[in-house]
Amino acid sequence: MKLTQKTLFQCFDKSERQSTVNSNDSDE
C-alpha cells in the first residue's frame, strides 16, 4: 500500500503545494 499512498499523496501534495509550498517540502 506504499505505492497507492505515494500516488495519492503526490496528487494531494500537488494541490496543497499551491497553498503551502513551504509547509509541504518533504520528499521521502
Please sum up the structure shown:
This protein has one helix and no strands. The chain is mainly alpha-helical and 28 residues long. The two termini are 15 Å apart.
Q: How many E strands?
A: 0
Beta-strand percent range: under 5%
Radius of gyration: 9 Å
Main structural class: mainly alpha
Outline the biggest β-sheet.
none
Order of helices and strands: H
Could you report the average pLDDT, rounded to the nearest whole number? 67
Distance between the termini: 15 Å
What assembly state would you assign to the polypeptide chains in this entry?
A: single chain
Helical proportion, percent range: 55-70%
What would you call the shape?
elongated
**Unreliable segments of 5+ consecutive residues:** none
Question: Helical segment tally?
Answer: 1
